[in-house]
Design brief:
Shape: globular
Distance between the termini: 64 Å
Oligomer: single chain
Number of strands: 5
Structural class: alpha+beta
Helix content: 25-40%
Radius of gyration: 20 Å
């Protein structure tokens, strides 16, 4: 099969696959404030716990597009509250117990740490 014909078939197959996916609706998207909030919370937790050389937050703190993120405790007019475990690099991948728990409130716009509720041994 000539290269142009093969490319057309591949393009057609990809178009069919992509076209089959339902379009995202506004209610299916994570609001930008929530994405900012998780990034702000993760960044602060890394900083206060010694940096990435010694600390990694739970993987849920990297799931910025998750609509049902298990680290998000609440989201309301007071802001976003995250509660998550953390530990040394690769603690989750190695199935090690977490060594820290962090609970943190982020402003409604997702840019400011309003309160560090807890940062210590897992409760």
């Amino acid at each position: 099969m000539p290269g142009a014909a093969r490319a057309f078939m591949v393009f057609g197959a990809l178009s069919a696959l992509l076209g089959a996916a339902p379009p995202l609706k506004a209610q299916d998207r994570v609001p930008i404030e929530a994405v900012r909030a998780i990034n702000t919370a993760r960044t602060r937790s890394v900083k206060i716990n010694g940096g990435l050389q010694v600390y990694r937050p739970a993987s849920c703190m990297f799931a910025t597009a998750a609509l049902d993120n298990p680290c998000l405790v609440s989201s309301d007019s007071d802001g976003f509250v995250f509660s998550f475990m953390g530990g040394p690099p690769a603690w989750q991948e190695r199935d090690l117990a977490p060594s820290l728990e962090t609970e943190i409130r982020i402003s409604p716009d997702g840019t400011v740490v309003e309160e560090l509720i807890y940062n210590g041994p897992p409760r």
